[in-house]
Amino acid sequence: MFNSPDYLIHTFTVGTLAYIAIIFLLRVSGKRTLSKWNSFDFIVTIAFGSILASLLLSTNTSLAQGILGFGLLILLQYIITWLSVRSNIIQKLVKAKPSLLLYQGKILHHILKQERVAEGEVLAALRSNGITAIEDAQAVILETDGSFSVIQQLGNGYASALKDVKGYPKN
């Protein structure tokens, strides 16, 4: 059942120290490291899990290697987010554009298909925002993190907060 008590002690010790190291490194790296996910953040999170699993279950991976791996991922994520704030090219490589799924009470089915979103998901987003009729919504946007933004009123003139939304008509 157990290979050796040494393996259990190793898993307990390394797991505890790795957990403390992750908390410390994430705290030092700032809020952006734990912000809502995009595809880049998802990859980094999976990599964190893989490193932690290797640390916990493999006696061939040292604690120092694991902490270096965590630190490297956080450093790379910091560099990418720093660059993406300063460069539109990097930002376009790392983050998808938000997409308009409903506009002026009409569901944009061609965009739903492109984004692989079911009409029921748009309806659920409307309901969760207290909207019971599609016609009462001015816009539903699929955000870069996969969440939905529901806008009841666009107001007068150009809606500048929607300028980066794919499918929003530009004035």
From TrEMBL:
Lineage: Bacteria, Bacillati, Cyanobacteriota, Cyanophyceae, Nostocales
Organism: Mastigocoleus testarum BC008
Residues annotated as domain YetF C-terminal: 86-153
Keywords per UniProt: Cell membrane, Membrane, Transmembrane, Transmembrane helix
Localisation: Cell membrane
Family, per entry: Belongs to the UPF0702 family.
Name used for this protein in its record: DUF421 domain-containing protein
Keyword Transmembrane attached: yes
Top-rank lineage group of the source organism: Bacteria
GO cellular component, one term: plasma membrane
Mode of membrane association: Multi-pass membrane protein
UniProt xrefs under Pfam families: DUF421, YetF_N
Transmembrane spans: 7-28, 40-57, 63-85
Residue stretches making up the YetF-like N-terminal transmembrane domain: 16-83
